[in-house]
Amino acid sequence: MWVSDDPLADPGRYRACIAGFDRSGLWPVLIPHDPRFAATGEDWLTDRGRLAPAVHRVGDVDVAATLARWWDPFCCPDGTGCLRPYSAGFPGLAKKSQLRVDPLAEAGNTGSILVRRAPHRLGLVPVERPADVPAALGWTGMIKSTDEVAAVSAVLRSWEDRFGATLVVLGFDELELSVAAPPRNQNRSLVLAAEHRAFSLRSFSGQPGTLREYAASLVHRRHWRFSWD
């Protein structure tokens, strides 16, 4: 990965990198400032270990089976009430949403907004599609939950295909996606909420309320954020 020394100053540069992706084969990711490393002077990109690159294994991953394996029914303090209408079993994958917006244009818009809000360095990763960035880098941000980085990218590929969800931010232990085709009703967002919870229990646990309430927040939402802190 090529990484800028300084934060990206021009939001238009991010959109330009996305526009040139088909020609360059370099997907642009925004790398946020992480205050946890400020005191030590570390840069997690170079000073922390990585897993072996695993893009060649991404296509072999069964996404539904993987999320079912990652589904943890024991996080609720009182039984499985927080998981209603589901319980101990993972409900499967949400249906594909109708794509009405170009995912790359949506990613460019989302990324440019994030650049305006906070400092981000620019990273360029040689991949065939944005979802493959974690597997290509051997990213370890999810290591507290799993070391299956190919599975992480496989889930991102599935969300790309079903929701136009595109990776725009890569942090030490966080990912952010722009979403061109979010679910448009509560029923579909409920199943997607279960996928989110299986993928990143920490992200779900950090939200107030039940799975139903989390699902309500996903209807028409065009920006997803996950963390494994």
From TrEMBL:
Pfam families: DUF4253. InterPro entries: DUF4253. Residues 121-229 form the DUF4253 domain. This is DUF4253 domain-containing protein. It comes from Amycolatopsis tucumanensis.
